Amino acid sequence: MIAPPARRGTGHAPCHHGEILQGVFLDATGRRCAGLVTLPMTGMGSRAEFTRRPGTPPERLTVLPGDRTKAARAAALTVAECARRRREPPCGGELRLTGDIPVGLGMGSSTSDVIAVVRAVADSYGVRLAPGTVARLAVRAELACDPLMLDARPALFAQREGRVLEVLGPRLPPLVVVGCALGGGAPVDTLALPVRTYDEGDVRAFERLRALLRRAVATGDAALLGQVASASARRGQQLLRHPEFDTLTGIGRRLGAVGVQIAHSGAVAGLLLDPAAPGLRHRIRGCVRALDSNGIAATRVFTTFPPVPPVPPFPTTQEFPSGPAHCGGHRPARPDTPRRPARLPAL
Known about the structure:
Layout: E1 7-26, E2 32-53, E3 61-64, H1 69-86, E4 92-99, H2 109-125, H3 131-142, E5 155-158, E6 163-167, E7 176-181, H4 200-219, H5 222-240, H6 245-254, E8 259-262, E9 268-273, H7 280-293, E10 297-303, H8 324-327
Helix pairs in contact: 1-2, 1-3, 2-3, 4-5
């Protein structure tokens, strides 16, 4: 008997640069749940290639590199989901992952792997999965995930439940981010961090920051966004306790940054600059020099613009194949787009 032909699919997912806001929030029913708003960053990402073998048992699944256990789990879950939709028996296959995201810095490397795998498996079946389905599979594969399966709009995302609590607006205010790595870039073992408990006062404080971030997005107010990010980063230090944090915030104040942001589960951080303020290039160079002189490794400079064109209301029923999560590039500039590069070279 001739074996059915192999079917190949590919998928891509971006990373992020830590969080703008992270804490505990109230959902539409008033229930508390953990949530976060990530700072998107184009360029780096994970790529997956899945070759499914119809007629083979589903447990015959090989993964390269072999240590990507979350990706393997995501592949098995997605095979079962897609096979059910296509009314076919699940099967095995070969999965290959490549990417350039640093691991352990809080840039969403594991979620990027998982989402790339989900997309590759779905592509091999000719199935388009909605973002909500991708999020559900990602949470099942790794218990909590970043919102890298969504479009470019800033959203408050419940990372342990895989659902959007609120879309905050169409796009972030324009920002230039001078990225760096705290702690010498050593990976952070998030499982070793103590579990934080939150009281009513904490929830009220996070809800105030949520309201301020909503206003910052609605009005394009970079300074207000910087205040929110700084307040969230300061609260995150109650667990992370980066010894360079005060130095980082001091550099930001001295050189006119609107705020700082950090990865709440890693070592990556950034100084946030308003591109409309005068002397941008001078301030970028000053930030890089000040970071280096204080033993903090400056990593890359990137921006939150150009903005993306309007898209249909969230949630959507399907992903956008031309979006940044799929093509890894930038949308065409509009007439009102600031004429600066969307991503400056890595330092």
